[in-house]
What we know:
alpha/beta
Amino acid sequence: MKKLIIINGPNLNLLGKREPNIYGSLSFTEFLDTIKEKYKTVSIEHFQSNIEGELIDKLQEVGFSYDGIILNAAAYTHTSVGIGDAVKAIETPVVEVHISNTFGREEFRHHSYIAPNAKGIILGFGLQSYELAIQSFL
């Protein structure tokens, strides 16, 4: 059984409430339940933190033993050299995910410190971006 983890960064705990015109009205917990039901042969875990260091700690914790990491570092994508370095330091492949099309938003969101060390990037497909990332590991 493949072992995957979805790691979500700041403010993604507010999905379903935060800017539904951009992020939709479904909570991440509701979405995760449907994904786990759909992919019963895959172990899918989830971790969310608003704290940069906790995201780095989790990447280091799972980055040598999991089959894949789906990382939505949210705003830290564009600001955190530390998260980018953590992705570079681990062995587990990372797919960078974004719910919105970051290139259709503010210019500062057009740069990623994660992308140079990611297996790939999926963005702009809403919550389906996560499912596409799961499929990339299967």
